Amino acid sequence: MPINADYRGPGDLPEVIPVFPLPGALLLPRGQMPLNIFEPRYLAMIDDALRDGHRLIGMIQPDASHSGGDSKPKLFEVGCVGRITQFAETGDGRYLLELTGVSRFKVVEELTVKTPYRQCRVDFFAFVDDFEARKGEDDVDRDALLEALRGFLKANHLKVDWDGIENAPNEALVNALAMMSPYGSAEKQALLEAPDLKTRAEILVAVTEMELAKKRTSGDPPLQ
């Protein structure tokens, strides 16, 4: 596997990947996710991913509605695989990583394995459009997205680099805002499973507007 991998389609990815169940974590294609790894089972997962050369980790949320208190909670059916594109050792037993999203996947089955971390057989073919950068950008209502962002920032007394936002392509803007959004697991999963960029932007706007309306009418504390 080359150091700089170029994934042109689902066939370029393995059928079996290690998965990292993490509530509230949303990785999207070409998005960047920092991770602080300290649990022994996930340190082993990173060691194996680096040793095997594929450097791929499947990010997926545990489905709390079906956990039943199990030590091995049920997973949502859809996650996103990312490639380790930055790696550092901290000297105190932790790894600091950055994953770059490659493609979403559907879980076909979870495998019975001897590794301390979970592994799944997955299918990428349902998300073939993920391999085409900036697909569907022209369909995004950018004005509505920015208006929702302004409302969110004002309600929470936050500031952003507007020059950077204005210069960001629609795909990067939608996916970055979705990944950074403060919403719960259900909302994050809806954003992940959106069939296209336009729908993801619409979900993000709708959820933001609902939360802002709730805050205005009920006096709820700011989103966090």
From TrEMBL:
InterPro entries: Lon_prtase_N, Lon_prtase_N_sf, PUA-like_sf. It holds the Pfam family LON_substr_bdg. Coiled coil: none annotated. This is Lon N-terminal domain-containing protein. Gene3D superfamilies: LON domain-like (2.30.130.40). SMART domains: LON (SM00464). PROSITE patterns: LON_N. Signal peptide: none annotated. The lineage of its organism: Bacteria, Pseudomonadati, Pseudomonadota, Alphaproteobacteria, Hyphomicrobiales. Residues 17-212 form the Lon N-terminal domain.
